[in-house]
Recover the amino acids of this structure.
């Protein structure tokens, strides 16, 4: 067994080394138009009361579930071992390799804030299997290697480049986390193989499931090899050419994988939600590197189509299970909502990039909404149960699962939570950006000066935040602090959802306890100062309970309100209300109380509101109504106490009744 | 174009020829213990007011849909053409060949009561493709022939023998209908190939989806070659040996395909419902031919497990969509009921055989229940829409489909309706059996005398039946007339379901208008007589509306009643009740009226019952209750007027309420 202090020392060295290499590579590839560069997970220590326990939970429970399911209960790892031995059949689904890679990416992030020798050893062992399975020409996909290798790169729906993209993401993350480059070298060889096969030969091909664009851009940034950027761009440009010969009897229509128009001509969100999010995330990466305004313009238009007409209050997207994606504008059923966990993770990925590109905080408003609600709901409070779909209402039929045959969601929510450090800070040559309010420490460089940053907060339960900014030497720079849209009654521009009872806050900021001048810009408070060691910025956003309505076009939400406090969307669950959540109406103007509450071991703020409850009489011959107080809990905590009725949108009128349903 | 009268003449000749050959083959293979032999479709002309229009609908609509989907919209036929040409890839699912065969079987039956040159020409064309695709060694399965032929007979879940069984059924049906034996010869070659590969080499194998046993037994009866009977028996004996190496991570457990115990040791119904029905149908065929009481004893025990603990009132089976099958005793949820159409078809197939084996009318009671309710519900009144699952309650989410990716149900319900003639009569050397009450003509041989039989009735809307029995010369024989269980308050022995308000009828039978002596035996009235030309048997079963309750173990039906009249189970649908079917309770003792009614163009008897309706007040602030009359319609007609709420089991108490669900 390795000595722990030696181990920690080695890891610290690795961090320094990798961070240095990373910055060199970034500079080398720097012709970005981005407003800032996000500070990566490997540079951020998360100390947060809310997120740190979740990071630990992911390390001790979720990743254990991923590892067990990937290596023991299913032959995902065995497929690599068999491939290396040239023996055995492929068992599983053709995209199963990606689950291994996504788990490795999550494990990489986890090592930063929850170092764990066993997890690192597992990762190293898996990486050995993966490297041994790679073909001499760089190709790597166990489905084709154990099957009919002559068919590789002939069936574009078979996810070879999707798998490859996840491998690249894992490789960069593991390199970033540990400094070990074995997996990175595998990814580089595979990327070179694909570059030759695809771009250099200009093959008739596009990716049946976008993802490789993201992986290639990460590989580009870490290596500086601009072939990968060109290849990512090549993939984007293949879209909209209808390379896939669509047959009317098949379920895959061009809109399913965003192939109706070239990316730059796209204006509407269509098809499979996760595919769309990965496409636009990769597009944003390419746009940032190439300064291609065509991409940026298209994405801004598509983004409006998502946010103003096709997003749930939880930040979830993709209402339909049939195509795991979008249907038509304002079609947002609550009980039937698909809202795949991975799609909400994709919303986080894309909106972070849009914010980097534009410096507009509205993207972080959406990111925060998806993160704390639609995505986090995918992970049980116990860490070892998962939701694939995240409905906004339930008749009790929904249940968290240990695992899924198509196992994208568990590893995806794990990598999001373990990598939460990726979304807190941004930096450029003359400013620090604070996007999320999460207790954490980082050390960055502004204007050639090293700056230690430390944040403390009880967010999301209250809006008090304190940030210590300690430059190595006193220095002029700007600190951008996001002013959340919900403090301004501004639920994503108020287009799809609006606040009934809110008051626009005029936030105040203090430096070392004294009111500070600031200007407002694109949703940020910008504090310009000559900062010195130990300066403390403090502020408090009030967190009233907001009663939200939706645009009347969302028929499912008519005559209903939803409750939100800070970034947290609430729901009423049977577990807190005599096992019923469909037997009441609320007064939209009723006073709403906050209380300290616990869901299992999770301390939360719950809400209480007076409601008219309808119940059958004892003999079942009639109905009677009574006034009672009902309790609403954070949406992300629902369904942790068994199958249960639940509603996010609470009715304000009696319009329909079902007896004994 | 062929001259029509020549054509009809040819067909008649073919019928005579095939019927003769059939009887010769039957005699040749006769060591059956059966109580009677069912009179096959090719000997029965259906004239019925209820079924004949449905047979025509199947010919003009359902079969057209099958043909369009099989040949035009999907490449199921193209797969055969490509196989013959040794070119192209297999497109579709590995069991798609079976849809072609099942359609051919349905087309065969249809030709009897709805002759149609276009359909026959299509069948002949398809048969040419099929014959051309067969390998020289007799093997035929386009999935493996267009894929990796070296893998044939290595993956027992790939349905090769399932496909083969359907080919055999189609071949025998087409031969029976037309006298043409091209497809029969294909089936014989394939059966010989399988016999060599499997039985003669005693291969480690069982069928992943039972069906071939049925096909082989039909082939045995038509050819007299007892290798096929032996092969069918071999297949039965392979079950329960755990030949399939079950891996814990996989979804297929031994009970899924009835592999826990040898067939003769089975006592419980398990797993996939259609698989189970096909297994026991094939087992009954083998038992009838081999006089193997072990099979019969096992099936009687399993049958009780189905009927007393695991069958819906509609005769549907298999509550769960997860395994398309059975779960645990009394687990019969209404809204979530899977009740696959094919499983109800399977209930008809199995129960007909059990009745043939035992002469006990209780099996026909079940057959009739599944036929008029669970199965017929699978076919829309327009003939071109289908249900795959047939729930007993709906919140309006269910909808009939044009087609399904797995397309078993449309062809299955089509072959059942087109072949309804198979289930009406039975015959042995000294008796005629009348099982179903369906207007029809047939000509049979009893005691070497030809007997013309003609039945007229308005069943299922009233219970008046008239049967003309015309022997060529006066002759002593018995006529067995089924006394339906519902006339005796006997809803399948009253074990799972029982009648609240019934009166046991004492049926009377008349011969030429005069009361006739009869004895009651196993649910039949047996009239012994010296019959002469033109004798008319008449009788009338009263059809009161029965209020049915279920055993309390069926939690979903507690404090509810269901309505049945004759064999028809009723439901309340929103379309007849202000679009709501979940807003009332009924008094279980309320008087129920019958009315003439129409669902689209379908004339039916509907029911009316007083109910307490709960509705919101105009301003949505409160609920109010009113007494109103609600209308119930035959279950099989529901969901023909759009998506709709529906309930079969009507609540008698208010126990739970959902507002605005």
């Amino acid at each position: 067994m390795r000595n722990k202090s030696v181990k920690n020392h080695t890891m610290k060295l690795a961090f320094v080394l990798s961070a240095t290499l990373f910055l060199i590579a970034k500079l080398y590839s720097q012709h970005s138009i981005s407003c800032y560069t996000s500070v990566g997970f490997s540079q951020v220590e998360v100390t947060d009361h809310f997120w740190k326990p979740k990071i630990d939970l992911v390390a001790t429970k979720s990743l254990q579930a991923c590892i067990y399911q990937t290596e023991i209960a299913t032959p995902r790892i065995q497929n690599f071992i068999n491939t290396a031995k040239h023996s055995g059949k492929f068992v599983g689904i053709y995209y199963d390799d990606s689950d291994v890679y996504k788990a490795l990416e999550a494990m990489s992030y986890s090592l930063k804030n929850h170092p764990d020798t066993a997890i690192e050893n597992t990762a190293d062992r898996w990486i050995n299997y993966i490297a041994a399975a790679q073909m001499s020409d760089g190709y790597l996909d166990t489905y084709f290697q154990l099957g009919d290798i002559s068919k590789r790169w002939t069936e574009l729906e078979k996810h070879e480049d999707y798998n490859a993209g996840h491998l690249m993401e894992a490789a960069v993350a593991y390199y970033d986390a540990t400094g070990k480059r074995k997996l990175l070298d595998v990814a580089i060889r595979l990327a070179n193989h694909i570059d030759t096969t695809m771009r250099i030969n200009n093959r008739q091909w596009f990716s049946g499931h976008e993802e490789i664009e993201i992986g290639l851009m990460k590989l580009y940034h870490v290596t500086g090899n601009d072939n990968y950027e060109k290849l990512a761009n090549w993939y984007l440009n293949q879209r909209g050419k209808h390379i896939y010969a669509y047959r009317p009897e098949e379920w895959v229509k061009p809109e399913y994988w965003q192939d109706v128009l070239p990316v730059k001509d796209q204006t509407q969100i269509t098809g499979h939600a996760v595919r769309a999010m990965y496409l636009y995330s990769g597009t944003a990466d390419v746009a940032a590197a190439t300064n291609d305004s065509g991409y940026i313009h298209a994405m801004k238009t598509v983004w409006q189509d998502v946010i103003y007409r096709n997003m749930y209050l939880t930040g979830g997207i993709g209402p339909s299970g049939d195509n795991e994606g979008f249907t038509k504008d304002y079609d947002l059923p609550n009980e039937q909502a698909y809202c795949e966990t991975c799609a909400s993770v994709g919303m986080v990925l894309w909106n972070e990039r849009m914010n980097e590109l534009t410096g507009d905080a509205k993207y972080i408003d959406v990111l925060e909404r998806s993160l704390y609600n639609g995505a986090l709901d995918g992970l049980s409070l116990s860490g070892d149960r998962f939701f694939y779909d995240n409905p906004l209402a339930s008749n009790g039929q929904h249940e968290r699962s240990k695992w899924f045959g198509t196992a994208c969601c568990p590893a995806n929510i794990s990598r999001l939570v373990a990598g939460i450090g990726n979304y807190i800070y941004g930096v450029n040559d003359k400013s620090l950006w604070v996007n999320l309010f999460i207790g954490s420490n980082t050390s960055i460089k502004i204007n050639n000066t090293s700056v230690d940053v430390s944040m403390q907060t009880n967010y999301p339960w209250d809006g008090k935040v304190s940030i210590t900014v300690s430059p190595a030497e006193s220095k002029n720079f700007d600190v951008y602090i996001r002013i959340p849209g919900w403090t301004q009654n501004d639920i994503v521009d108020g287009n799809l959802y609006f606040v009934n009872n809110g008051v626009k806050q005029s936030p105040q900021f203090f430096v070392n306890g004294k009111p500070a001048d600031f200007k407002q810009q694109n949703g940020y408070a910008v504090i310009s100062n000559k900062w010195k060691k130990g300066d403390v910025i403090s502020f408090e956003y009030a967190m009233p309970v907001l009663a939200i309505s939706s645009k009347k076009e969302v028929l499912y939400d008519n005559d209903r309100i939803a409750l939100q406090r800070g970034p947290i969307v609430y729901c009423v669950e049977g577990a807190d209300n005599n096992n019923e959540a469909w037997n009441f109406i609320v007064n939209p103007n009723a006073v709403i109380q906050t209380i300290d509450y616990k869901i299992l071991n999770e301390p939360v703020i719950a809400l209480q509101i007076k409601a008219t409850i309808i119940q059958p009489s004892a003999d079942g011959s009639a109905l009677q109504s009574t006034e009672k107080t009902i309790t609403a809990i954070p949406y992300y905590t629902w369904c942790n106490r068994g199958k249960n009725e639940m509603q996010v949108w609470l009715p304000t009128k009696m319009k329909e009744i079902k007896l004994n349903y």
User: Anything to note?
Assistant: Confidence is low (pLDDT under 50) at residues 1-8 of chain B. Chain B touches chain A at residues 73-75, 148, 248-249, 336, 395, 397, 405, 559-560, 580, 582-585, 614-617, 619-623, 625, 651, 653-661 (CB under 8 Å). The first strand of chain B starts at residue 37 and ends at 38.
